[in-house]
Amino acid sequence: MSDDEAELRALRQSKQYQAVGRTKADQPTETEPEPQRFVADKLSNADEEPELPTSFGAKTITSKYDFTKDVKKKIGPSRPQASARSDDSEMIGPPRPPPPEEGQEDDLAEGEQLTAEDSNYYKIPYSHEAILKGHSKMVSVVCLDPSGSRLLSGGYDTNLKMWDFAGMDRGLRSFRNVVPSEGNNIRALEFTHTGDAFLCATTSWQAKLYNRDGVEEGECIKGDMYLMDQVNTKGHTSTITKAAWRPKDKTNFVTSSMDATIRIWDVETIKRKQRQVIKLKGDNGKKVGGSTLHCSPDGSHIAVACQDGSVQLFTWKTNSRPTLTLKEAHAAGNDITSVKFCGDSVTLATRNSKTPLAVFDDLPNFGELECTWSPDDNLIMTGTSVKKGNGTGLLVFYDRKTLSRVKQIGISQGASVASILWHPKINQLVVGTSESQVHVLYDPTLSTKGALLSVVKAPRAVDPNDFEPARPIITPHALPMYAETLSQKRKDARSSRDPRKTAKLAEGPLKPRASTSIMPALFATFIKKNTQREEDPRDALLAHAADADENPMFFGAYKETQPEKVFDYTPETEQRIAKPKQT
Fold first, then answer.
1. Per-residue pLDDT at 145
2. Residue 374 CB contacts under 8 Å (≥ 6 apart), including other chains
3. Within 13 Å of residue 494, how many CA atoms lie on the same side as its CB?
4. Among residues 379, 244, 220, which one has the least CA distance to residue 299?
5. Residue 421: strand, helix, or coil
6. What are phi and psi of 244, to 5 degrees?
């Protein structure tokens, strides 16, 4: 043992240091020099002689964090883990239906098996389900506000339904129904980043703006379809296919249309003219319609999917040429139904209506099918289409890095998956299907608010003291102006069944009845019957012969000089004109 180690050991024994330090009573005085501090392992037995440290200086001891943490008192019972949940534990909302049958299992890599612990490795909230009913046809688009409290759904029945999770009970009924454009399907719905207004685009030529409560605030102007140059038109001249807000900007939005243009609008001037027109052209220089679009999260680019299978990127600046063109991203003639930017504003995911991208190989699809990203951008989510009543519409998840299918969820038997949404704040999935239903998937241990607020509320019980007065029944279609026009044959058939019209007349002589109206006398006085057609023309002329002799009209000038009239009754002869002789 060296001299330094012996001196240090003697000093520790004299001061009675513990392994983790010294006591408060043995603190050094102002005149006593403080020795070098160190932290050693906790002694297993206090009576044993402490060992010397192998090195000097402060060390981190993990066990010390246990008693140095600021442990706060928990309010309420602790949240149970999904794996440790018993069968008789309280469940929020109805459970999900059983997994797909044989032949519909997850498409995993060879030799890969999912265990009970890692079956939900990606934390997909799908253990419970709430079904919203109200549409009569396919739900083509769904949208949630930034807070996740208000849901919008639009479909082929031209109805826009608004759902409020905080105000709904277990009945799950919408609080408002709006028809943006009669007879036109809804193609796009999107809230502003503040959630105070939303944009609605239908298959008509005009997009509309609504406030949060569904009151219309404005409508885009309609373009002149007879102008050849689309730059000179003030609005779209064909069907709108998609509309989207510029991220973090509630004054500008963009629309795509089948008129081969995308137009940038300002909410202050939508009734007069768009702000900018960008023409879409194919590889051969001819115009091509836009199928759909999406704005990058950073608000720098607009990705437009065209009908020729290409994807073109534009900026929000006044530049009509694309900054990047992905030629033949899909086969020509196959409409791209969805294009979505990743959170990094660099990666794109697209979905085709006929021949899907290689990532989504062998997946059946529907014309309104979408694809989207998970909130952490690690998964790509899309759906499948099936024939009506044959098969199950699936919600499929792909890993971004390996491009392998990691999960698939059966949504509805015999119905296709059309619109999908994964909200990042409430962590819930919203799926619209072709059977006119909206499925909200959630997990009580992973999700917050949203459908969790509605499924726990019981509807109000009916009180026997409730009273509501009877209201008049208004049937406007019962008015004569709404009655159907009948043919003459059907009118005669109805008249023959009328007892008043078919009643037998009284027999015997009828007594004349005196007229009680003065109109016949007035007509007889002021209107005389014209009998000229019944008179003889010769007699009518001879009646004026005597008057014509006494007062001649044409020969009155010769009455004194030549009272006897001398007329030439010889017939007129042709006067021959003598032609001059030629010399």
1. 93
2. 122, 380, 381, 397, 422
3. 6
4. 244
5. strand
6. -155, 145
Cβ–Cβ under 8 Å, residues 329 and 350: yes
pLDDT digits (tens, 9 = 90+) for 538-556: 888 888 888 887 887 777 7
Do the beta carbons of residue 183 and residue 202 sit within 8 Å?
no
Q: 326: closest CA among 187, 316, 318, 336?
A: 336
Task: State the burial class of residue 506 (Cβ atoms within 10 Å of its Cβ: 0-12, 13-18, 19+).
Answer: exposed
Q: Which residues lie closer than 8 Å to 231 by C-beta, 6 or more apart?
A: 277, 279
Domain coordinates in residue numbering, the chain: 128-453
Tokens encoding 189: 């719905």
Query: Looking at the predicted structure, is the pLDDT value of residue 53 above 70?
Result: no
Q: Per-residue pLDDT tens for 440-471?
A: 999 999 999 888 988 888 888 888 888 888 87
Strands (E), 8-138: 128-133
In the predicted model, what is the mean pLDDT of residues 264-287? 89
For residue 526, the SS3 value is helix
Q: What CATH number belongs to 128-453?
A: 2.130.10.10
Distance in angstroms (rounded) separating the CA atoms of residues 270 and 220: 5
| 461 or 313, higher pLDDT | 313
Dist. CA 422–CA 481, nearest whole Å: 50
pTM above 0.70, yes or no: no
